[in-house]
């Protein structure tokens, strides 16, 4: 009988969980240490008394990671999990485009992190669909 959802005995389960924890960590960093997080994101911001943009990004990342955790916990079908990961991969892709538009490619490490995250999510979703 084919596998219908990811279980804790699957490497893909743990890779998906690691992705979720990483996204949550990045989001928490934007809330706790917004200026260094923005710099590492690839688009430094000047010091400001209002961190609304940075906290918004942090909240988005935390919620995105929690969605993945919830989907794993609910044991949703492989197709639903993979579809979510494919669609959610647009977030780091959009982040990569935003960094590119802002600094015109001068921050290659940030571009590689965003692009790599997008590719990782797509590969992970593809592998989940292949189960």
- Using DSSP, what is the number of strands? 0
Q: How many domain units?
A: 1
Order of helices and strands: HHHHHH
Given the structure, what is the number of helices? 6
The largest pleated sheet is described as: none
Strand content: under 5%
Q: Roughly how many Å apart are the termini?
A: 11 Å
Low-pLDDT windows of residues? none
Which labels suit this protein?
mainly alpha; elongated; about 130 residues; single chain; about 75% helix
Overview of the molecule:
- The chain has helices at 11-32, 34-41, 52-73, 78-88, 90-103, 108-129.
- The chain is an all-alpha fold and 131 residues long.
- It has one domain (11-129).
- The mean pLDDT is 94.
Per-chain topology:
Layout: H1 11-32, H2 34-41, H3 52-73, H4 78-88, H5 90-103, H6 108-129
Helix pairs in contact: 1-2, 1-3, 1-6, 3-4, 4-6, 5-6
Short description:
The protein is mainly alpha-helical and 131 residues long. The chain contains 6 helices and no strands.
